[in-house]
Design brief:
Layout: H1 3-6, H2 10-18, H3 22-43, H4 47-63, H5 74-92, H6 99-108, H7 140-143, H8 146-157, H9 161-172, H10 177-184, H11 188-210
Amino acid sequence: MEPARLHGDDDLFKRALEDRDERAFVELVHQYQDPLIRLALVYCGTRAVAEEVVQDTWLGALRGIERFEGRSSFKTWLFRILVNRARTHAAREARTIPFSSLETAAGSEPSVRADRFLGADHPDWPEHWSVPPRSWGSPESELLSKETLDIVLRAIAALVPAQREVITLRDVDGWDSGEVCNVLGITETNQRVLLHRARAKVRAALERHFDPDLE
């Protein structure tokens, strides 16, 4: 069985892994290893620990492939294994507080400082921007520069875990909202709020970089 034929076909992947087809496993690792490590780093303190969690995830997938029933995609099933193992590891190592409390906090905090808006008693534009977001007007090369990307990555790393996992899956790895909700076990409303808060904080970090006067 040629690896190229397996791409995107969950049934073929399942049969190949049940048969312990090494080429199928290599293709899966090539396809998912980096996104798995990125998500594991949300919960793990170092890349070495994240890689251990990902290795454990692969072992769990291989040992439990018979239980994959195809009710969700193989990708969703695999990443749910990762999330369960990573959260268990993080809780055991006391690296995080309960995710339920983080989600509550994430939903109630302001995404942008209140002083960026006009007061409710303003005669013309209540609650509109008093200090609008700076129009970066920068060439694409600037936005994609290593320095700017580093700012984005640092801003993501500084988010609370519940926000960080959502923005990592949505904006870094390009998942749709349904996949994210399925893997993380959250509602569409929570997913939307967490993503909004995360994006707002990343944008604020970029604004501070491009316009230090906003500090």
